[in-house]
Amino acid sequence: MFTPSTSDNDAQTNLTRRRVLLGIGAATVTVAGCASSEADNDDPSTGSFDPASALPYGKWLTTAGDGMLFAYADLEAVPTNAASSAATTGSLGDPLVTYPLVLNQTTVGLGKVQLSIAGLTRAFATNTPSDSTITEMTVVNKTVVAKGTFATDKLDQRLTESAGGRSRVTYEKTGTTRGYDRYEPTDVPESFTEDPPVVGVTAETVVAGPNTEQLERMLAAGDGAQSRIYEESETVTQLLEQAGTGDLVVGEIGSRQGDGFAPREAFEISPQFQPRTGEDVVASLVFAEDGSTVESQFALAADDLSESRRESIRTAFGKTAVSGSVSLMVNDSQLTVSGTYNTTSIGLTNNDSGKNELSRSATAKLVSPDALAFQYEPPRDQQFGEFWVTPTEPTEAAALRLEADSGASTEFRPQEGTVGANDSIAVPVDPAGDSVTVSVVNEEGAVGELTTQSVPTADLSETAATRAVPEDALSFSYESPSGGDFGSLTIDVVADTGADTLVAQPQSAPGLFTDRVGSLASDESVGAGTTLETAVDPTGGEVIVYASVDDATGEVARWQRSQ
Asked: What superkingdom heads the lineage (predicted)?
């Protein structure tokens, strides 16, 4: 096991937005047996491998702590239009592909949150013109490195301009570090529960770190002036050589307890494998150029690799791989597994070619455009809002996919059956302006575009808010907790309103308790007799009610629990 000689006492807060995804994923698969080979491997390294020059992310692998979680993604090599709820729910049954896929997706997703705060939301979009484009991402603990092309003047304007009432961070350019323009946050909205990153910018690279010290450390590593984790351990170098080359790569090295960076907990996912104490792991995925197959590589090192541990990996890994493609090599302290997968069999499809497109009529047969409710939820404690889509009647679709014009995407695919009524799905959206395309996926993986909906992100004026939802149109009723941690707030709409939608958003209780009614696509406004319910912190929780009217959204009521 890797044991570094340095320590890090920096307290790092946890990023906890669960819906920002890389835009890749996997569907539920049928577990099938496959043949495998096993051999002893006494000399796993050539001794001449240099991660700094051989790997596009190698020079960034530095940490001041006792361990590291890192992820690398070549965004241009990953199949597009392949987001899936299965990737975040862990419904795949094969850790050889699930572990690198899911952990990479969620770790890079948390990195996207940091970059979105830094003004790069649209740089992820594949189909939207942008002044800046991200082609590669590396995340090392809580520091993010984005490679691509960046319009530095536009980024400077985006970072330093006044928020103008919008919920976003304002930065100040405070100097330069190793050729990077350094930006530090000066105005942080009260709704932000996490410290925003410190940002370094050049025309080719943007680096976002949790503080100035971490940013400077990462930039020094990029210049070769700071030690990297593999320089202290031949074992880590061997793991990177065995499994560190790929389009998607993840690694868990050393002990990271208490570092505040926890993608598994933040996204509530299960990659179906987690290193034990004393184990170091690197894993990767490489996609074929035509997108038909993906090869997985997995390497594990431990001081004592027990026979029971070998057997558990031998039994679980590679169950859904192409028959005969799985290879397992072991010795006393290291284990490597590789296998090849058909991307369609694990739900990773590339629809750029147009070969798997559904006609408009076939799409409408799966889901009627009139059977969807659309709602926009403004940002609460994050940089972006959420656009919600909910079927109002049963569908024949195997999955629903949402793609925001700003670059985020997500997909809902039930583990059994088709998408049903009230199966809600959300995608992060840019509160400065965005639109969302809804697509339908059939059982064969073919995709059809259903509709595109503009997000009502314009500010709803106070006059328009009062006209749409008068003060006496809402009635509030609170009930104290009955065995749980939260009380219950019922909001009755007692008079017809002019609002397309109403959203009751708790400010202290978890966001999953947010309630929404109405639809942006409906010809009818929210009427009398409608009810919203949400949770409230009994020690002084607050609930904000938002209304969307045409292309604008704003606060129409605020309820505070008195202590």
From this structure: Archaea
